Amino acid sequence: MKRRVAREKSLQALYQIDIAKSDAEEAMESVLNGAPTDEYFKKLVTGITENREQLDGMIRDNLENWTLERLANIDRNLLRIAVYEMVHSEDVPVSVAMNEAIEIAKKFGDDQSSSFVNAVLSKVKVKIG
């Protein structure tokens, strides 16, 4: 599975975890729908669920006039994926993590999602240096 597909599948799994309160394993199995698992997909979902407090704190610190809870589920989980990659994935350049999140926001989010995600991630990028 290409990394873009792994990110999109991760977004779907994280969405299920948030909405249906599924555990990570159930959500991953549901999203894969019988297809073989992918290591990067699994790394994203488990890494994000294990580091959720840290990721959410970093996102909260970079929101203006929004709370994390008020964000659209797609935007919130895309931010989690990108911030996770920016901080925890040594083989993914920060700019790639940002660009991937912006492109996926265009596909799955609303009209404002990509520019919103870009703005928040740009602030995160400055803070992590």
TrEMBL record:
Keyword NAD: no
Gene3D superfamilies (UniProt xref): NusB-like
A Pfam family: NusB
Tagged with keyword Transcription: yes
Keyword line: RNA-binding, Transcription, Transcription antitermination, Transcription regulation
GO terms for biological process, alphabetical: DNA-templated transcription termination; transcription antitermination
Domain of life of the native organism: Bacteria
Entry GO CC: cytosol
Role of this protein: Involved in transcription antitermination. Required for transcription of ribosomal RNA (rRNA) genes. Binds specifically to the boxA antiterminator sequence of the ribosomal RNA (rrn) operons.
HAMAP family (alphabetical): NusB
NCBIfam families (UniProt xref): nusB
Designated name of the protein: Transcription antitermination protein NusB
Organism field: Peribacillus butanolivorans
Name of the gene encoding the protein in the UniProt record: nusB
